[in-house]
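Hello support,

Our group uses your service weekly, and this is the first time we've seen a run hang past the timeout. The protein is Lipoprotein. I'm not sure whether the cause is the sequence or the server load. Input pasted verbatim:
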Amino acid sequence: MNKSTRKRAGVALTAVALAAGLSGCGDKAAGGKAADGVGDVTQALTAAYEKTSAAKSAKFRMTMEVEGAGAGIGAGTTTMTGVQGWDPTVMDVTMSGGAFAAAEAAGGPSEMRMVMLDQVMYMDMGAKQAAQMDGKRWMKMDLAGLAEESGDASLQQLTQGMSGTNQDPAQQLAILLESPGIKHVGPEKVEGVDTEHYKGSVSMDEVLKNEKSFPGMTAEQRKAFTASIEKTGVKGYDTEVWVDGNGFPAKMIVDMKMPQGAMKLTAFYSDYGSKAAVQAPPAGETVDFMEMMKGLSEAGAEG
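Update from on-call engineer: The timeout came from a worker crash unrelated to the input. Re-ran successfully.
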């Protein structure tokens, strides 16, 4: 594999890893099970969960702050802005900061637009990389196909983290409803909007024992995923949500501590229910990641 191709592959995989993290720190517990003894709090969050699930789309901006090597993608702050939809899963976002600063220094893009639909990710690699790909600036990655082809548990975990059940804000509400220590903090303003603030903690044991945390995974994939999570040493994470007067999450925070470092995600949402008009780039402007890697592998075998 030549140096420029390795660089393109590395940038593409890093971008997917960042998107997986920004989309919600891997797998989440699904379903809105009510926590015992919290009365009106559970009722309010259940209503917000149902309303957000029905909205199916929202505009958002997120930041991911990483300390140490906890996320496996380097320390720093990465931002993501765009639109996402759930049921079906779609996403059109622009990412910058964090790992992209290093990528820019190495000739990669300083920011990257990413489009996802039908479990396929398209990454705009920028003009410099396009010049080395016959003018095609979009890298296409079939996430499910890539994981299956590789047989790699960590890659399967990564692509699972990009699935629709792990991206939408409704699922963050579902996670909070799984928390036995859920509580209402009180009224607060979020960017001038009146909201109600709620918080709770979720243990990884609860997530891993819940079969709904693994939609679409085979028993073997679930076993591999569970083992990989246990290796990280993550015991759980804290979740906070600010619900506006319309019953939608206006802000969310996920704070995770691990032996290698820490990761904090802060997300702001708006325009719930607005159409997520996400389109794939023209086929003539894309390079298939799997085909590129397969060709290089064959060339290496012949050489």
